[in-house]
Write a structure and sequence with these properties.
alpha/beta; globular
């Protein structure tokens, strides 16, 4: 059985304890990884602080950081096949989706390589006897806690802009899917970043994660994950007013207008809620359909869901397992709760007789006030609800504590734009769920968090503004 290590101060390190990683497709043990200790975390933070204090990242010419970033991207691309297979087996996702995580990671490093030397300040006119300008200054030590659903790409999403801006980074990997991230860091290690710039620790969130966010050396926190965990991290961050980027949960809705194209919609529904078994923070978890199209759309969505092939990731199925037995149990419990509240299970709602942690593609007819329509499931469960008026659809879509993404489907540019501009969320899709890419800013409002990842805007989450004002002395 393969055993994986942590990366601390330029060295791959074992530990006295280890964590077991399961294959969700088979419910069998796949590998083990070193379980970092508090002492390991302290060593990583001390090395990151040393890197910052010595200016090993921030004092070099930014073009050199760009070169390191591009070398890292090239090295990541060389590991796509090897890393993709590991990610597929530890995470349960399809093999191609797992490979795509590495390709997307390479793109993050290429994209932010182009921004490393473009963090330009401004000159502010204050009159004849003054010179005033601003600088963008890296925070210093960035602690980044990565979730289990897309560990490789989400790690790169935060790591790349942080390094491009000149920060040292300490990463806490998810204990149930940490393995492929080690290959990502091995690739980046080849790029020539200075010692102490990057650290990777695997450990329990309640132990290592909590210790890192409370550490006296932390200058910034980046977290992607559940609302309760994010709230606990923010409580810890409040003691030292540590700047934070929070990408939390979602309960995102797509509004289907009366003139929506059915085939376009069905492609987005399949991707929006059944991709990665619905374990996506920006999943299309609610479908609001105009009453004149409701029966047609409902029947088509159910037929599509029932036609999906479920299986292990290496076989390239339409839908893969959930990450763990715990997650499978939680999703099935929420479906049972929906039944008890009077929701109608149109299809799915059960665990197929397969090895692994599967839940059948599920479509539920529910009212907006039901728990299943208000709380994040993080599984392959779509809630479908009719509406009568445009304003009613907007009110239902906005009627949760979340505000991550939303969507509108329809042929009228005037109406789709009008609706889109009234939806609560950091990103709104029109006629294609998950439209956009690494170039487009991503983040939420409300309990979906704050701050933005991706796009040019994200790099400014990793710097603060310093103003320098000079009064000129005259003889």
């Amino acid at each position: 059985m393969t055993h994986f290590l942590n990366y601390i101060d330029g060295q791959w390190c074992d530990a006295d304890r280890s964590l077991t990683v399961m294959n969700p497709s088979t419910a069998e043990v796949y590998a083990t990884i070193a379980q970092a200790s508090i002492a390991d975390a302290d060593r990583a933070m001390a090395a990151a602080r040393r890197c910052v204090n010595e200016g090993l990242l921030s004092d070099v010419r930014p073009a050199i950081r760009s070169q390191w970033m591009l070398k890292a991207a090239a090295a990541i691309r060389e590991l796509v096949d090897e890393g993709g297979l590991i990610a597929c087996r530890e995470n349960g996702k399809s093999l191609q989706d797992a490979k795509d995580e590495f390709l997307e990671s390479a793109r993050y490093f290429e994209y932010y390589a182009g921004m490393a030397d473009k963090l330009e300040g401004t000159s502010i006119p204050l009159g004849k006897n003054y010179i005033d300008f601003t600088q963008y200054v890296p925070f210093g030590v960035s602690v980044q806690i990565v979730p289990w659903n897309f560990p490789v790409s989400i790690c790169a999403r935060s790591l790349a802009p942080a390094l491009a801006a000149g920060n040292a980074v300490v990463i806490k990997s998810p204990e149930i899917s940490p393995l492929a991230m080690t290959l990502l860091i091995k690739a980046i290690e080849k790029a020539g970043f200075p010692q102490g710039a990057i650290h990777l620790l695997c450990g329990k969130g309640t132990e290592i994660g909590s210790h890192l966010v409370q550490h006296p050396e932390v200058d910034q926190i980046v977290f992607t994950g559940s609302v309760p965990t994010g709230q606990r991290i923010l409580q810890d961050a409040a003691h030292r007013a540590t700047p934070s980027v929070m990408e939390l949960g979602g309960k995102s809705a797509a509004i289907v207008l009366r003139d929506a194209d059915l085939q376009t919609l069905l492609k987005s529904v399949q991707a929006g809620i059944f991709f990665n078994a619905g374990q996506v923070c920006s999943a299309m978890s609610r479908l609001l359909v105009h009453k004149t199209r409701y029966e047609e759309v409902k029947a088509a969505v159910v037929a599509m869901a029932e036609g999906l092939v479920i299986g292990q990731g290496e076989s390239q199925p339409d839908m893969t397992p959930l990450i763990s037995k715990e997650q499978q149990t939680r999703v099935l419990a929420m479906i049972d709760q929906a039944r008890q509240e009077g929701a109608k299970i149109l299809t799915g709602g059960y665990a197929p007789e397969l090895s692994g942690y599967f839940v059948a593609p599920t479509v539920i007819e529910a009212t907006p006030d039901m728990q299943i329509a208000q709380e994040e499931v993080f599984g392959p469960v779509l809630v479908i609800t009719p509406f009568e008026t445009e304003q009613q659809a907007i009110d239902i879509a906005n009627g949760t504590v979340f505000g991550l993404v939303a969507g509108v489907f329809g042929e009228s540019l005037n109406q789709t734009l009008r609706v889109a501009q009234q939806l609560r969320g950091g990103q709104v899709f029109i006629n294609e769920w998950f439209a956009g890419g690494i170039e487009t800013p991503f983040g939420g409002v409300g309990l979906s968090g704050f701050g933005r990842e991706k796009g040019q805007e994200a790099i400014y989450s990793y710097v603060h503004t310093r103003n320098i004002a000079i009064r000129l002395q005259h003889d």
